[in-house]
Write a structure and sequence with these properties.
Layout lengths: L7 E8 L2 E7 L7 H12 L19 E7 L7 E8 L6 E2 L11 H7 L9 E8 L5 E7 L22 E6 L14 E3 L2 E7 L3 E6 L11 H5 L2 H17 L12 E6 L7 E6 L10 H11 L18 E6 L2 E11 L5 E20 L19
Parallel strand pairs: 2-3, 4-6, 11-12, 13-14
Antiparallel strand pairs: 1-2, 1-16, 3-4, 4-5, 6-7, 7-8, 8-16, 9-10, 10-11, 12-13, 14-15, 15-16
Length: 370
Amino acid sequence: MSGVPKGVPCLLMRGGTSKGAYFLASDLPAEPDLRDDLLLRIMGSPDERQIDGLGGAHPLTSKVAVVSPSADPDADIDYLFLQVAFAGPEVSDRQNCGNILAGIGPFAVERGLVPAGPDETSVRIRMVNSGDRATATFPTPGGRVDYTGDAEISGVPGAAAPVLIEFPPGPNPLLPTGSVREEIDGVRVTCVDNGMPTVLIAATSLDVTGYESPAALEEDPVLADRLRRIRLEAGRRMGLGNVADATVPKLTLLAPPREGGAVTTRTFIPVRCHPSIGVLGAAGVAAGLRIEGSAGADLADLEPGSDRIRIEHPTGFLDIESSLVPTPEGLPSACRTAVVRTARKIFDGTVFPRSAETAPIHPHPLGGQR
């Protein structure tokens, strides 16, 4: 093959505190291996700088959304999230992304998959990775997506139009192991799944405060080894199998709040420490803190009578509404989860992938998340 590789229609968008490339499924190969090979070349992987593609050399900026009309009568569109590694030739579909989700509704309108309302539009979304659902509502004055507004979220400069995302209860149990709290490697943890498999841990049980910077936590080899052992065993107990090469479960360290919120968090995704917190990870934290006796619940300052929980993270906070109901078996189950995010269209055009003849270099699994 010679000449310039065929271009692919692409919309680059910031969704929440992440950035990703959004594609129509019809513009990509249907066969997963061919699709993933193309996406690696589009994003510039494998290369720790992703210098030859769209990726930003960080897990939060090497993401892809694949969108298509849904055959499900309860959804308007299907959304497949793909995490593209940067240091290794790997594309993972083993998790959702609630931040990239913030751009899915606007993208669906931009591509004509869903008609825009005269003032606002609601899009029902099926998250293909897990089968979970969400409804995104955002302004469309005059039948066009308006990205401008006064909603601010921590970790993103400036303001933009609000995107209200509501999550009905998902198909998975909130407590996938059936236990409110258990011990792994001598540490008390709570394993939750409110759209994202997450392990909650009191920071002090790992001999850290929970207020350290992400960089400082990443540079702690003792902590990294303990988190690795906990994650591997938690993944097994949560029914995820061997998660050595997976991006889930996430692990969130909890500490008492310092800035008027409910709790302070430090989240590992799974090895890099998140500069803020993912939407679905925050949903897990919020639900977990409402479970009596859960790991870290005694550290939280919850407002009586309110569903809203302010979760502090390294670059600010995230407000999320969460409520629980008991199951017939007496275990807690998520009732309602809602969050306000923002999104912004960065460019809409054609991306040209690196030639397929270019050999991968320096392959490492999990995009440098070692």
